[in-house]
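Researcher: Structure for this, please.
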Amino acid sequence: MQITVNGQSRDIQPPATIAGLLELLRVNSKAVVVEKNLKIIDRALFDREPIQEGDRIEIIRLVGGG
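Model: Predicted structure, C-alpha cell format:
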C-alpha cells in the first residue's frame, strides 16, 4: 500500500501500524512525535494506530539542548 512519510512516497505491506513503521525505519519511538493525517498520535497508541492506503505520516525528531 502507498503512504507518504515526511513528504516521500513509500510502499509498505499491510497490515501496518505506527509502531511497525517506526521499527521498519529504525526510528526510536521515544525520540519522535508522529503526526498522521495532520493529527498527533499519542505515543501510547503507536502499536494500535493503523496505517491505511494514502495516509500522510510526519515523523518529527525531538532534539534536546539548551
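Researcher: Any notable elements?
Model: Strands lie at 2-5, 8-11, 16-17, 32-36, 39-41, 50-51, 56-61. The two ends are 41 Å apart (CA to CA).
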